[in-house]
Amino acid sequence: MPAKFSGGTAGLVLAARLTELSDVTVGVIEAGVLRLGDAVVDTPALMGQSLFNPDYDWNFTTIPQVHVSQRNIPINRGKMIGGSAGLNFMIWQRGSKQDYDAWRQLGIGNGWDWDGLLPYFLKTEAVHPGPGSAGVSGKFHGQSGPLPIHYDNFDTPLEGPYAQALESLGVYLNSDPEAGDSTGLFNSAASVDPATGNRSYSAVNYFLANQDRDNLVVLQGAQVTKINLTPGNPIVATGAEFVVDNITYSVNATKEIILSAGSIQTPQLLELSGIGNPNILKEFGIPVVYANPDVGENLQDHTHVTSQFELNDPTIPTINLLNVNTTFEAEEQALYHINHTGIYTYTISDVSFHALQTFWSPAELAQSLTTLRNEIQAANLSKWQRKQVQIQLTDLENASVGQMELLFFGSDITVTNSSKFVDILNFGSIQCTGRNISAEVPFILVHRVSDA
Ligand SMILES: *[C@@H]1O[C@H](CO)[C@@H](O)[C@H](O)[C@H]1NC(C)=O
Ligand SMILES: *[C@@H]1O[C@H](CO)[C@@H](O)[C@H](O)[C@H]1NC(C)=O
Ligand SMILES: *[C@@H]1O[C@H](CO)[C@@H](O)[C@H](O)[C@H]1NC(C)=O
Ligand SMILES: *[C@@H]1O[C@H](CO)[C@@H](O)[C@H](O)[C@H]1NC(C)=O
Ligand SMILES: *[C@@H]1O[C@H](CO)[C@@H](O)[C@H](O)[C@H]1NC(C)=O
Ligand SMILES: *[C@@H]1O[C@H](CO)[C@@H](O)[C@H](O)[C@H]1NC(C)=O
Ligand SMILES: *[C@@H]1O[C@H](CO)[C@@H](O)[C@H](O)[C@H]1NC(C)=O
Ligand SMILES: *[C@@H]1O[C@H](CO)[C@@H](O)[C@H](O)[C@H]1NC(C)=O
Ligand SMILES: *[C@@H]1O[C@H](CO)[C@@H](O)[C@H](O)[C@H]1NC(C)=O
Ligand SMILES: *[C@@H]1O[C@H](CO)[C@@H](O)[C@H](O)[C@H]1NC(C)=O
């Protein structure tokens, strides 16, 4: 049987699709557990409450980061069947065309570009029209995939004025961010099922929907620690080791192994299994099976700062009002349970992407790019990594490419006992070019965290 690790967003999609073939048997090994019927996962307005909780979150952190006062930056990753889509903020949005076409530029063929992937994006989703989705054409929106997608049916009275403020600053309104250009301001879709008001994610819509299949087995609470590789030419992945309650087990695959553990733990498992940069593997006493200095490098992620604003009128319905006004809370509970609408289905809908040129003067941008180029020059990058950073540099210079994201959130993420605050989250992308360049996330630290 093909064995698969692990049961996250992509892993369960693959498991569900492969087991449509009755002669294929798939075993999925996942460290987290199934969280069905858990309101912290299901209820949109409770988003964020599972972050930093080790029952749901791997709760990784980076080593101290030079450019942010030596702080350790949190890296939240979902630890459950369904993976990080079980704890994220449910924004459902694809990248711009050129984000995917960059793979083709790198020489990755076989349809790994916008045109090749679009049919699969559409196949995944069942987009339900809703407020603010007018103008969204069917061409870029799947109608009959397993994953229900909706448009927020609840706005605070602040979304409109916030959008107007951005427009008055020259931010253009993007009527369809799924059509290949995701810059500008738009009303974001959310991975929420309008039929239930619950989060939609692969645990429900790909696993639960197919759990009766005899050829699909999901093992939960089992952490894969190593892929067993048989050296030779080619090297063959034959099985894996995994740990349940401190006891190590092993399993063999008769056909193949699919490693699908996300951007942090996929390279970690490759390294723990002997595939990676020999210098790093040696430091940890891991025998090198296949030397590849690119494993775990050039992670791109987005990190954020929060700008918090105090409201003049504390009766404006924000999510936090649920915690301080019991009448409001009871009304909204009834609405949510009976009609699957109201503030409990609230997600972030005002989303905008901006080029660096929006915020930086030409001189500031030129200076930063020079600094970055010097760091890249000084870094010991492989040929592959140089190709990657060249594409990233070209994009940074391009005033049509989004690098910064603004999200409006009608709630405060930290002060839950006061209704008075709203947050604007400012995301920037981290484009790390190696372990020793600014804003890097060293995977080896992740080993230390999870080995402890
Ligand atoms: C929706 O979420 C609630 C709260 O977790 C849960 O009780 C209910 O079973 C969920 N509904 C469906 C159809 O999954
Ligand atoms: C999770 O990580 C944060 C730092 O990002 C830390 O402050 C917190 O104590 C961690 N939680 C647990 C339960 O380890
Ligand atoms: C696993 O081992 C650790 C350290 O030896 C111990 O603290 C923990 O209780 C063990 N857990 C289980 C489930 O046996
Ligand atoms: C897996 O295969 C190896 C040989 O390739 C064998 O030694 C081992 O016993 C097998 N393990 C299991 C759990 O079947
Ligand atoms: C540069 O990287 C290559 C490939 O990983 C490695 O062989 C070499 O030792 C590195 N040089 C330095 C100075 O770190
Ligand atoms: C509490 O909520 C109720 C129902 O929405 C509303 O009528 C009332 O004004 C609110 N009270 C305060 C103090 O915000
Ligand atoms: C649910 O929706 C119906 C029809 O729109 C409405 O009449 C009813 O009052 C709503 N239920 C609640 C609890 O608000
Ligand atoms: C800049 O980005 C736009 C929009 O994605 C693209 O059409 C254009 O070709 C890019 N220009 C360069 C010089 O890469
Ligand atoms: C909210 O909680 C914080 C910390 O527990 C406390 O300092 C503050 O006074 C509380 N605010 C209100 C309005 O209850
Ligand atoms: C990268 O940084 C680590 C930790 O600061 C240091 O031990 C290592 O020598 C550095 N590697 C290179 C190639 O500069």
TrEMBL record:
<keyword id="KW-0285">Flavoprotein</keyword>
<dbReference type="Pfam" id="PF00732">
    <property type="entry name" value="GMC_oxred_N"/>
</dbReference>
<dbReference type="GO" id="GO:0050660">
    <property type="term" value="F:flavin adenine dinucleotide binding"/>
</dbReference>
<keyword id="KW-0732">Signal</keyword>
<comment type="similarity">
    <text>Belongs to the GMC oxidoreductase family.</text>
</comment>
<keyword id="KW-0560">Oxidoreductase</keyword>
<feature type="domain" description="Glucose-methanol-choline oxidoreductase N-terminal">
    <location>
        <begin position="262"/>
        <end position="276"/>
    </location>
</feature>
<dbReference type="GO" id="GO:0016614">
    <property type="term" value="F:oxidoreductase activity, acting on CH-OH group of donors"/>
</dbReference>
<dbReference type="InterPro" id="IPR036188">
    <property type="entry name" value="FAD/NAD-bd_sf"/>
</dbReference>
<dbReference type="InterPro" id="IPR012132">
    <property type="entry name" value="GMC_OxRdtase"/>
</dbReference>
<dbReference type="InterPro" id="IPR000172">
    <property type="entry name" value="GMC_OxRdtase_N"/>
</dbReference>
<keyword id="KW-0325">Glycoprotein</keyword>
<keyword id="KW-0274">FAD</keyword>
<protein>
    <recommendedName>
        <fullName>Glucose-methanol-choline oxidoreductase N-terminal domain-containing protein</fullName>
    </recommendedName>
</protein>
<feature type="signal peptide">
    <location>
        <begin position="1"/>
        <end position="15"/>
    </location>
</feature>
